[in-house]
């Protein structure tokens, strides 16, 4: 019971994998949630007894309560939730369909609300808990051709502050990490095919380089740690200065 229990959505790849690895290295048991069971299985095997997974599509909002009930029953408590799972879609504004928009909003915003609500129900009786949301530079300033993603991540940041105001008196801290441009398969796919955008990223990043997934993992762990016990409602860019660059 003394071991902390964390849920990391999208925990089997990219930023989520780095976050999972960091939390496990700090002795926290991580339950990864994701759609790709092969990725999850591989990660769980690599990280050992402190890592397990649930294959689940977070777009299935109606089944989220049962999923969290199952995890809480199995592990007796939930101390940490990292809302990392997300999808992106690069399209001109007028080409984005209602279904396109709804799909991105459902995965990146609605599921964050739904899973947080269910986890908070388990945290309230314990009188403590920690939720870390993952935002994006798309909520810090305009990025063209990602209208749905921008709307969702802006919503995540607003929800972080609203949740913190309501839940912090109950002992539950809510914070948010806003990654800059980080070296992942998703960012490589987006930037390598768009040299103009890639050049713009580097030109407005004062540190002159992309970040590593581990940079995000360290920030997430800080918010989980005793070092952040008096920190709530914060959106922290981890971006090499990108959000304030010219």
From TrEMBL:
Gene3D superfamilies: NAD(P)-binding Rossmann-like Domain (3.40.50.720). InterPro entries: NAD(P)-bd_dom_sf (IPR036291), Sc_DH/Rdtase_CS (IPR020904), SDR (IPR050259), SDR_fam (IPR002347). PROSITE patterns: ADH_SHORT. SUPFAM superfamilies: NAD(P)-binding Rossmann-fold domains (SSF51735). It comes from the Bacteria. GO terms for biological process: monocarboxylic acid metabolic process. PANTHER family: 3-OXOACYL-(ACYL-CARRIER-PROTEIN) REDUCTASE (PTHR42879), 3-OXOACYL-[ACYL-CARRIER-PROTEIN] REDUCTASE FABG (PTHR42879:SF2). Belongs to the short-chain dehydrogenases/reductases (SDR) family. This is SDR family oxidoreductase. It comes from Pedobacter frigidisoli.
């Amino acid at each position: 019971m003394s071991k902390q229990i964390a849920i990391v959505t999208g925990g089997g790849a990219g930023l989520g994998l780095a976050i999972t690895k960091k939390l496990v290295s700090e002795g926290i048991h991580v339950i990864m949630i994701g759609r790709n069971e092969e990725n999850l299985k591989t990660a769980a095997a690599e990280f050992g007894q402190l890592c397990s997974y649930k294959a689940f599509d977070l777009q299935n909002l109606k089944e989220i309560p049962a999923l969290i009930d199952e995890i809480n029953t199995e592990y007796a408590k939930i101390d940490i939730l990292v809302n990392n799972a997300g999808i992106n879609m690069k399209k001109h504004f007028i080409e984005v369909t209602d279904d396109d928009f709804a799909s991105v909003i459902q995965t990146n915003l609605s599921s964050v609300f739904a899973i947080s609500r269910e986890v908070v129900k388990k945290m309230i009786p314990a009188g403590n808990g920690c939720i870390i949301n993952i935002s994006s530079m798309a909520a810090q300033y305009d990025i063209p051709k990602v209208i749905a993603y921008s709307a969702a991540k802006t919503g995540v940041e607003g929800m972080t502050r609203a949740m913190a105001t309501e839940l912090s008196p109950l002992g539950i801290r809510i914070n948010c990490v806003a990654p800059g441009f980080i070296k992942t398969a998703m960012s490589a796919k987006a930037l390598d095919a768009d040299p103009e955008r890639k050049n713009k990223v580097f030109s407005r990043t004062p540190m002159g380089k992309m970040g590593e997934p581990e940079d995000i993992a360290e920030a997430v762990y800080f918010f989980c740690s005793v070092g952040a016990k008096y920190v709530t409602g914060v959106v922290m860019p981890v971006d090499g200065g990108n959000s304030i660059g010219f």
